[in-house]
Amino acid sequence: MRGFELYKINKMYFGYEEISRILGISLESGRLSAYRYAKQGFLIRIKRNTYMLKEKWNTLGRTGKFQLANLIQVPSYISLMTAMDYYQITTQLQQDFYESIAVKRTKEIEIERTLYNYSKIKTDLYFGFIKEKDFFIATPEKAFLDAIHLRSLGRYNFDLSSIDVSKFNLKELQKMTAKFPLKTKMALERYEFF
Q: Could you tell me the residue ranges of all domains in the chain?
């Protein structure tokens, strides 16, 4: 199978152009090859014109899956319980489920039994994230505020008792809260955070 030549690609993910170059075929043939190799299970389709080798997917750790979460929907950042789990703020552990905040749309995508969930928020609330290694992730305080905000809108549910609030920087939490709508602030007061 000529597909084994794709192991020469030294990237986490790639498109038709790379497949065409490595196999020495036209772009259209590269696109068709990508489709066929994905159907055979040799490649994993991440999104349009973005593939990765199945072997690479199988060895991908959490940070690699975070990078893919950022790539699947641009712009986006890891947040909610996924980020709080990353920071060890919650006892709720998640496996093969990655939550992100986005400004374009709310959607859910499944790739190889791994679920990527995107919750849309207003553009003025799209802040409070950092670049960690090779992915964007909410700060601990922003991940919590995103969860409270979506919960106040009836769009998210989580076990509040699983959160270790002693790990938050309360000054930072108060500063960020000022940018959120009244409904979110009232929810925080109801849970006695301030």
A: 2-58, 62-190
